[in-house]
Amino acid sequence: MPLNISEIRKDFPNLKAQVQGKPLVYLDNAATTFKPQAVINAITDHYRSYTSNVHRGVHTLSEKATAAFEATREKFKNFINAAKAHEVIFTKGTTESINLVAHSYGHFLSEGDEILISEMEHHSNIVPWQMLCERKGCKLKIIPINNQGELILEEFDKLLTPKVKFLSIVYVSNSLGTINPVKQMIKHAHNLNIPVLVDGAQAVSHLEIDVQDLDCDFFVCSSHKLFGPTGVGILYGKEDLLNKMPPYQGGGDMIASVTFEKTTYNVLPYKFEAGTPNVADVIGFGAALDYVHRIGLKNIAAHEQELLAYGTKVLSVIADIRLIGTAKHKAPVLSFVLPNIHPHDIGTLVDREGVAIRTGHHCTQPVMKHFRVPATARASLSMYNTKDELDILVKALRKAEAVFQ
Amino acid sequence: MSDSARDELYQQVILEHNKKPRNFKQLTDSTHFAEGYNPLCGDHLKVFLHLKGDVIDDISFVGDGCAISKASASLMTTALKGKTVKEAETLFEQFHHLIKGELNPDKDPNILGKLAVFSGIWHYPARVKCASLSWHTLKGALENKKSISTE
Fold first, then answer.
1. Taking CB atoms and an 8 Å limit, are A404 and B66 in contact across chains?
2. Chain Cα centroid distance, residue B9
3. Which residues of B touch A341 (CB under 8 A)?
4. Is the CB of residue A261 less than 8 Å from the CB of residue A13?
5. Which residues contact A248 (CB under 8 A, 6 or more apart)?
6. Could you report the per-residue pLDDT of A94-143, keeping only the tens digit for each?
7. pLDDT per residue as tens digits for the range B62-113
8. Is there a contact between B74 and B61 (Cβ–Cβ < 8 Å)?
9. Which of A138, A216, A221, A363 is catalytic?
10. Which residues of B are less than 8 Å from A363 in CB distance?
11. Between A60-79 and A279-295, two packed helices, what is the crossing angle to 10 degrees?
C-alpha cells in the first residue's frame, strides 16, 4: 500500500523546523531518525503521570511502569520474531550491545582463535573485537569489499576456517547503504559451528527482520534509528547462549540473592540488565515500535526504494559526482564526493539551504581508505522524505559548486 | 566591513587560498616537523619549518582537508615566514582569540592582517577546528611533538 507521506509528515513535529530561514530538509536519518509525536507523548506521559522505577515496588505506579517497560520487550520480540521475550535485553545502544557480547561471550575465546568481521564495519563493530583480541590474544580477520561496496563472498568462504570462533557482521552499511546477504553467511558460518552477531543498527528501519529465519545467534540495534529515543539499545541472543554467558555488569536487578560469600545471578533477561534501566525511553521505544508496525515496514521499504532510485538518478546528473557505494542491494543511503569541494564544505553550504546531511568518515575509516577518500557527504533517507526534498538537495549542491567555481 | 560580510565563511581570500595554496610542498631541509590530524573529520596535514636561530626562515605544509583547513594552513605559512618564534606564538594566541569570537578586528589592536578573514568562523562551532588544525600542528612542530590530534 503506498504511504500517505503528507499524513506521515504531520506525525513528526521536528519536520516543521526552519533552518537558516528555510524549511528543513532532513537527510541525516542514518545518524538518527526523527520521533513521531506518539513517542514524545509516551515519554512525557510516563514522567507526568507514572514516574517510577521498575521491577522494585509493589505500589501502583511501579507496577504500571513495569508493565509498560516489559510491554516494549514483548513488542520488540514480535518485531524481530524472536522465540522468547527474555531473549531481548535492553542496553543503552548498539555499541553497548556489541561490547556486551565481546566482553561476555569473549570469555569463551582463547589465544590463537580468530574473530571475523568485514571491511565495511562501523567502528563500534571493530574496536570491541580489537580490545578482545588484545585481552585474549585472538586475531581479527577482515572480509574485504569490492569497488561497488559489496562483500567479496568468495573471500569470506576462504576465511571461514575452523580457527574462526566468532563472526560479527553488519546487515546494512551506514556509509555505503549495502545490504549484506547475512542469511547465507550465517548458514556458512554455522556449518563450522561459528556463532554470528548481526549488527542491525541500520537495518531495522528499512527491512523486516526475522531472527529465527536468519538464524543469527545475536542481533543488535538502537531505538533512536528506529524513530525511538536515544539511550536505548537491544541485544537479542539465543537463550542457550545467553544462559551460558557470564554477566557483563554487576549490580541491582541482575541478582537473585547477594551475600558477602556468594551472589546468585538472576535469570534472563535481568542477568544482563544491571542497575536502573532507561525506563522512560524504553517505554518511548515501545510507542515507536507501535508506530512502525502501524505503517508497515514493507510499505516503508517500497517508498524508500523509490526515493533511492530517484535520488541516485538526480544526483548522477551532477557532473563529476562520484557515488560511493553502488551495491546491487542497497538501503536508501547516498554517499558521494564532488571533485573540487571537500565534504565538510558541502555540508556547511547545503545547510544554508536548510538541508541536513552528514559529512565525514561516518565512523567507517576503513571504508574511506578503501575508496581512497578522506570523507564523504551522505544523504540518508527515511519514510517521511520526498522527491521534492531530493530536488532541493541537488539545487543546494549546485549552489555549493557555484561558490567553489 | 559589515557584520554580515564578515560572517561569510567562504570569503574570496579563503576560496582563493583553497584553490591555490601557498607553500604547499614538503621542505627537504626542515629543522622542525609535525603531523596534525582531526579524527572527527579526517583532515590531515603536515607542517614543515626551517628555523635559522629563532627566525622562521621557511615554512610549508602538505595535506588533505576542507577549504577552511587548507586556506588556514596556507595563510598561516604566508603570515609566519620571516617571523621569530616568539612572534609566531603571539600570532597563535591572537588567532585563537579571533576564531573563538573573543577578538574584534575593528576595535582590538590588530596584528593578524589577512588572517582576520576567519573572524566569522565562531558562528560555525563545528568548523573552528578546521581553522585551528594547522596552528596546533605548527605549535607541535615548534615543541618537537611529532603527532598532533585536535580531539
1. no
2. 15
3. 67
4. no
5. A99, A100, A103, A104, A272, A274
6. 999 999 999 999 999 999 999 999 999 999 999 999 999 999 999 999 99
7. 998 999 999 999 999 999 999 999 999 999 999 999 998 888 767 766 778 8
8. yes
9. A363
10. none
11. 40
3-state DSSP call for residue A380? Answer: strand
Residue spans of beta strands (DSSP E) within chain B: 32-38, 43-52, 55-64, 147-149
Q: Which among B15, B41, B67 has CB closest to A360?
A: B41
CB A33, CB A222: distance < 8 Å: no
Beta carbons of A103 and A317 less than 8 angstroms apart: no
User: For the purposes of burial, counting CB atoms within 10 Å of the CB of A256, is it exposed (0-12), middle (13-18) or buried (19 or more)?
Assistant: exposed
What confidence score (pLDDT) does residue A56 get?
A: 79
- Judge contact between A232 and A39, C-beta under 8 A: no
Integer-rounded Cα radius of gyration of chain B: 14
Q: Are B82 and B53 within 8 A, CB to CB?
A: no
Residue B5: how many other CB atoms lie within 10 Å:
9
Contacts of A59 (CB under 8 A, 6+ apart): A52
Strands A164-170, A114-118: parallel, antiparallel or unpaired by DSSP?
A: parallel
- Structural domains in chain A, CATH included, are 5-30+296-403 (3.90.1150.10), 40-294 (3.40.640.10)
State the architecture of B3-143 in CATH terms.
Answer: Alpha-Beta Complex (3.90)
Q: Which residue is it, cell 530517484?
A: A310
Terminal CA-CA length for chain B: 33
Beta carbons within 8 Å of A83's beta carbon, 6+ residues apart: A212, A239
pLDDT under 70 in chain A at which residues?
A: none
- Rounded Cα–Cα distance for residues A119 and A29 (Å): 22
Torsion of CA B86, B88, B94, B98, to 10 degrees: -170
CB of B43 within 8 Å of a chain A CB? The answer is yes
Q: Which of A348, A360, A404 sits opposite B127 (nearest CB)?
A: A348
ipTM given for this complex:
0.87
Residues A271, B22: Cα–Cα separation, whole Å: 61
Cell of A27: 537527510
A138 is a catalytic site residue: no
Asked whether the beta carbons of residue B10 and residue A403 sit closer than 8 angstroms, the reply is: yes
| Cα–Cα distance for residue pair A364/A29, rounded to 1 Å | 17
pLDDT at position B23: 97
- Chain B CB contacts of A367 below 8 Å: none
Which burial class, exposed, middle or buried, applies to A100 when counting CB atoms under 10 A from its CB (0-12, 13-18, 19+)? buried
pLDDT of residue B1: 46
How many residues does this entry show for chain B?
151
Q: Which amino acid, residue B110?
A: N
Residues of chain B neighbouring A345 (CB-CB closer than 8 A) = 10, 66-68
Question: Which residues in A126-164 are b (16+ Cβ under 10 Å) and which e?
Answer: bbbbeebbeebebeebebebeeebbbeeebbeebbeeeb
Contact B41 A404 (CB under 8 A): no
Distance of CA A257 to the CA centre of its chain: 35
